[in-house]
Write a structure and sequence with these properties.
alpha+beta
Length: 851
C-alpha cells in the first residue's frame, strides 16, 4: 500500500516532466534550425556579393583593356592609311615613315614601340630597329596570323619576348596590303606587360585578392595581389585545374572557386575574355577575406542561441520542481480515499463485500453490471440471491469457515437478472475492518473463456488430423518436384557456404559437366562464374544468404568446363538448410537471346545515327542560309552610302596632299581629320547596323549582370568624338552605384542618344546627362537633354522606327534610335521623348531594377 501511494504521488511529476523535456528539446531544435538557416542564408549572401564584385571588376577591366586595344588599332589603321597614301605617290621615304611612326607614338604614349616589317618578316622601320640590326619576325604567330587573316580586324598575341627591346609585350598587329590585296608586310605595336600592370593598379581586393591578365595559351601577362609577395613569372602558363575546366565549358566568361596555382590561396574567381582577342582577365577574392565577417557573425549568433537554450532549461527546471512539490501535497490529502477505491477496483471485474451472515454490504458498479441489476437492488441481498446452485447450508458453512488474511480462489455460477447463468471465477480475501469480519470478493466472468477452451480442444483434434494429411501430401509433392527438377532443362542448385549442396542434370549440362556428382561438393560455386563477375556475384550471394535480399534476379557471364563463355540469367532466394543459411536458385542460358538483342541494338544505333546526322546537317544549312541573307541585305542597304562618303573624303585628302607640295601641312591635316571623322561615322554606322541586325534576329534573353554605372558613363563618353566630349555635363543625382544590365548594349544605346544630342544641337551648346532614381516604376533613368531645335510633331509617332529621319540635312541612316528602343525593350524598359524648355529635346532611358 505504501509503495502504491508513493507511485501515485510521483505520477503528476512524471506527467509534467516528459512534456517539459519534449518542449525543451523542441525549442532546442528550433533554435538550432533557426541558427543554421539564418547563417546558411547569410553565407550565401556573402558569397553572392563576392561573386557580383568579381564579375563586375572582371567585366570593367576587360572593357578597359579592349578600349586600350581599340585605341592602338586606330593608330595602326592611321599608319596604314598614311603608308598607302605615301606609296601611291612613289617610293617610301624612310625618314618620313620614321617621322610618321614617331607621331603615332606621341599620340599613343602607352606603346613601348611601333614598327613595320616587310612581307618576308624583316623589321624595317621603328624605334630601336637600326641599333638592333637585322631582326626577323616571320616566325611569330601574330605575323603569320596577320598575313593569313585577310582584311579582318587586328591580330593580338602575347605575351612574347620582344626581339628588339628584350621586354615582355603584347602585340597588336595589322596586315599591310596593296590595293589589289597583295601582302606587303605588317604594322605592329608592342604594349609592355608593365602597361597592363598599371591598368590593374588601384583596385581594392582585400588582404589576399588577386587580379591577373593572361594571353595566348593562358600565358601570364600581368598580375597584382593585395599583399605583394614573390613577383609572378611573365609568360607562365601554370593555372588551376578548375580554371581549365571552366574555360572548356564557358570560354568567354564565368566563375569558379579554386586555390591559385601560384600562391595556394583559395579564392572566388571570375574571368572575362577581352572582346574577341585571346586575352583573359581573372579577378579573385580570397574566401578568408569575404567570409571572415560571416564567421564572426556565426560565432556571436551561436553564443546567443546557447544562452537562450540555457535560460529555457533553467526556467523549465524551476517549474518542474515547483509543480512536483505541489502535486505531492495534493496527493497526500486524497491518499486515504484513493486507497479504498483502489481496493474495490483491483481484484477482477466485479468487486463486492460480504459479511459473516452472507449479506452484501458493499460492491462496485461493475459487479452490479455483471449481474444485470442496479446497485440498490443488490445491496443487503444474500449470496443465494445470485448463486442459487449453492445450497444455504453450504453457504453458511463457507461464511463461518473463511479466515482473516487468507485468500481463496473458487469457481461458481451466477444467475443474472434476466435468468441466464454465467461462469465466474471468484477471488476471496478475509479482512477485519473496525472489528467487523468481512469477505472481500472479486468476480470475473469466464463464460466466454471456457467456451473458447472447449472450442480450442475441438480445433486441436482437427489440426492433428490435418497435419497427418498434409504431411502425406508434402511427401508426394516432394517426390514429384524432385523428378521435375532432375528432368528440367533449367539449371537448379542449392548453395551452402559457397559450396554446391544440390545440382540438377540441367545445370551440369549447361556448364559442360557429365553429371551433377562432378559438381556437388567438389568445386566452389564461383568456379562457374567468369573472373570479371565473380566479386559482384559473391556480394549478391552473401546478401541473399543473409536474408537482406529476398527473391533476386541477376545476370552474369558463366564459364563452361571447356573454357567457353555463356550468358546466364539467374534467380535466387534464401532458405534454411541443416548446414546453416543457404540459397536456392534457377539458372537460364540466354546466350542466343543476348546475341540477337545486341545485333538489333547495333542496327538501331546505326539507323538513329544516320537519321540524326542528316537532320543536323539540314538544320545547319537552313540556319546558315537565313543568316547570310539577312546580313547581306542589311549591309547592302545601310553601309553603301557611308562607304561612298568615306571614299570621297579619302580622295579629297589624297588630292590635298598632292596639291600641297609647297609644304602646307595644315590643309592636309584638316582633310585627314575630315577623313577620320567620316571613318568614325562608318564605324558607328557599322556598330548600329550590326547591333540592329543581331537585336532584330535575337529571340533569347540578354545576359543581364550587375555593372558599375560610372563605368558605363565613362565608356559611353569615351566613344564620342574627343572634340565634342567636353560639351557633355554629367549630373549623378542617383546614389545607385551598380545596376543590372548588359553593359555592352547599354553603352551602345547611351552613345547613340548622346551622339544625336551633340549633332543636332548648336555647336558649343551644352548637353546634360542626368542619372536619376525612379520609385514608380522602380528603375534607373538616364536623361539626356539638349538645346537643339527640337523634333517635329509629325515625326514623333514614328521616331523610333527603322529608317525614319527628320529634314535636318545631317548624315545618317535612321537606325540609331531604332537600336536604342530595341536595347531598352530587351532590358524590359523603354525610351521616351519630352520637350526641353525653352527649346530642345529630352530623351529618357528607363532601365528597370529589382526584377
Amino acid at each position: 500500500m505504501q509503495s502504491h501511494a508513493v507511485s501515485q504521488a510521483e505520477t503528476p511529476a512524471v506527467r509534467l516532466g516528459r512534456p517539459l523535456l519534449l518542449l525543451n528539446l523542441l525549442l532546442l531544435g528550433l533554435v538550432v534550425a533557426l541558427v543554421v538557416l539564418s547563417q546558411t542564408a547569410s553565407r550565401r549572401n556573402f558569397v553572392e556579393r563576392a561573386s557580383v564584385a568579381t564579375e563586375n571588376l572582371s567585366t570593367t577591366l576587360a572593357q578597359a583593356i579592349e578600349a586600350e586595344i581599340d585605341r592602338v588599332d586606330i593608330g595602326l589603321r592611321n599608319v596604314l592609311f598614311d603608308l598607302e597614301s605615301e606609296h601611291s605617290v612613289g617610293k617610301l621615304d624612310p625618314a618620313h615613315v620614321e617621322s610618321l611612326l614617331g607621331q603615332q607614338l606621341e599620340l599613343l604614349p602607352q606603346l613601348e614601340s611601333l614598327r613595320i616589317a616587310d612581307a618576308q618578316g624583316v623589321v624595317r622601320y621603328g624605334r630601336g630597329v637600326e641599333a638592333a640590326g637585322h631582326v626577323e619576325i616571320g616566325d611569330r604567330a601574330f605575323f603569320v596570323g596577320a598575313r593569313d587573316a585577310g582584311p579582318m580586324g587586328p591580330v593580338v598575341a602575347g605575351p612574347v619576348l620582344a626581339r628588339v627591346s628584350k621586354k615582355w609585350v603584347v602585340v597588336v598587329a595589322r596586315a599591310w596590303r596593296a590595293q589589289g590585296g597583295a601582302f606587303r608586310g605588317v604594322v605592329y605595336a608592342n604594349l609592355t606587360a608593365e602597361r597592363f600592370g598599371r591598368l590593374l593598379d588601384g583596385v581594392d581586393l582585400g588582404r589576399h585578392g588577386a587580379i591577373s591578365v593572361r594571353g595566348s595559351d593562358l600565358g601570364l601577362v600581368a598580375r597584382r595581389i593585395a599583399n605583394a609577395g614573390a613577383p609572378a613569372e611573365i609568360g607562365s602558363t601554370a593555372v588551376s585545374a578548375e580554371l581549365a575546366r571552366a574555360l572548356v565549358e564557358k570560354p568567354n566568361g564565368g566563375s569558379y572557386v579554386a586555390r591559385t596555382a601560384m600562391d595556394g590561396i583559395e579564392r572566388a574567381n571570375a574571368y572575362r575574355r577581352v572582346g574577341r582577342h585571346p586575352l583573359l582577365v581573372i579577378v579573385g577574392l580570397s574566401t578568408d577575406d569575404f567570409l571572415g565577417p560571416w564567421r564572426v557573425q556565426t560565432t556571436e549568433v551561436t553564443a546567443l542561441a546557447v544562452l537562450v537554450t540555457l535560460a529555457l532549461a533553467m526556467g523549465s527546471t524551476l517549474l518542474y520542481r515547483a509543480w512536483t512539490a505541489e502535486a505531492r501535497s495534493s496527493l497526500a490529502l486524497i491518499r486515504e480515499g484513493e486507497r479504498y477505491r483502489a481496493l474495490l477496483r483491483s481484484a477482477g471485474d466485479g468487486m463486492h463485500v460480504i459479511d459473516r451472515a452472507g449479506r452484501l454490504v458493499e460492491m462496485s458498479e461493475s459487479f452490479a453490471a455483471l449481474l444485470g441489476y442496479r446497485r440498490e437492488e443488490l445491496l443487503t441481498q444474500h449470496v443465494s440471491f445470485w448463486a442459487p446452485d449453492i445450497g444455504l447450508p453450504e453457504i453458511d458453512r463457507r461464511m463461518k469457515a473463511f479466515e482473516i488474511g487468507t485468500t481463496e480462489r473458487i469457481s461458481s455460477r451466477h444467475r443474472r437478472k434476466d435468468g441466464s447463468s454465467i461462469d465466474v471465477e471468484i477471488i476471496c480475501l478475509g479482512v477485519r475492518v473496525d472489528g467487523e469480519e468481512l469477505l472481500y470478493c472479486s468476480s470475473r466472468d469466464v463464460t466466454e473463456r471456457k467456451a473458447q477452451a472447449r472450442e480450442l480442444e475441438q480445433y486441436r483434434h482437427h489440426l492433428e488430423a490435418l497435419v497427418a494429411e498434409r504431411t502425406e501430401q508434402w511427401r508426394v509433392s516432394e517426390q514429384r518436384f524432385r523428378a521435375l527438377v532432375e528432368q528440367s532443362l533449367v539449371g537448379v542448385f542449392v548453395q551452402v557456404h559457397d559450396q554446391l549442396r544440390f545440382v540438377n542434370p540441367g545445370l551440369a549440362t549447361m556448364f559442360g559437366y557429365d553429371s551433377p556428382e562432378e559438381m556437388i561438393g567438389r568445386m566452389p560455386a564461383h568456379t562457374v562464374v567468369a573472373p570479371e563477375d565473380r566479386e559482384r556475384v559473391r556480394d549478391i550471394g552473401r546478401r541473399i544468404v543473409s536474408g537482406q535480399d529476398r527473391i533476386t534476379k541477376l545476370s552474369f557471364t558463366g564459364m563452361r568446363r571447356d573454357g567457353t563463355r555463356v550468358s546466364i540469367e539467374a534467380y535466387g532466394c534464401p532458405i534454411e538448410d541443416d548446414g546453416g543459411p543457404a540459397a536456392v536458385g534457377l539458372l537460364l542460358d540466354v546466350t542466343a537471346q543476348r546475341q540477337a538483342e545486341a545485333e538489333r541494338a547495333a542496327a538501331l544505333l546505326r539507323e538513329q545515327g544516320l537519321r540524326n546526322a542528316a537532320e543536323q546537317q539540314a538544320s545547319s544549312l537552313r540556319e546558315l542560309l537565313e543568316q547570310r541573307e539577312e546580313f547581306v541585305r542589311v549591309l547592302a542597304h545601310e553601309v553603301r552610302q557611308p562607304l561612298n562618303n568615306a571614299s570621297a573624303a579619302l580622295q579629297s585628302a589624297a588630292a590635298g596632299l598632292i596639291t600641297d607640295g609647297s609644304g602646307d601641312r595644315a590643309g592636309a591635316a584638316q582633310r585627314i581629320a575630315r577623313a577620320q571623322s567620316v571613318i568614325g561615322q562608318i564605324v558607328a554606322s557599322l556598330d548600329n547596323t550590326l547591333a540592329s541586325t543581331a537585336l532584330l534576329a535575337s529571340t533569347r534573353q540578354i545576359d543581364a549582370r550587375d555593372a558599375d554605372v560610372g563605368a558605363l558613363i565613362d565608356l559611353s563618353l569615351g566613344d564620342l568624338d574627343a572634340a565634342q566630349r567636353p560639351r557633355v555635363r554629367v549630373e549623378r543625382i542617383s546614389s545607385t552605384r551598380t545596376a543590372s544590365m548588359d553593359i555592352g548594349l547599354m553603352r551602345l544605346a547611351l552613345r547613340n542618344v548622346l551622339g544625336n544630342a551633340l549633332a543636332y544641337s548648336n555647336a558649343g551648346s551644352e548637353v546634360i546627362l542626368r542619372v536619376i532614381d525612379s520609385d514608380e516604376p522602380l528603375a534607373l533613368v538616364f536623361q539626356v537633354a539638349d538645346l537643339g531645335p527640337g523634333i517635329a510633331e509629325e515625326l514623333l509617332p514614328r521616331l523610333f522606327q527603322r529608317g525614319e529621319r527628320g529634314a535636318h540635312g545631317l548624315p545618317g541612316h535612321g537606325i540609331g534610335l531604332h537600336v536604342v528602343r530595341r536595347v531598352m525593350e530587351l532590358h524590359g524598359g523603354n525610351v521616351d521623348v519630352l520637350r526641353h524648355q525653352p527649346h530642345g529635346t529630352v530623351f529618357r532611358l528607363w532601365l528597370p531594377q529589382g526584377q
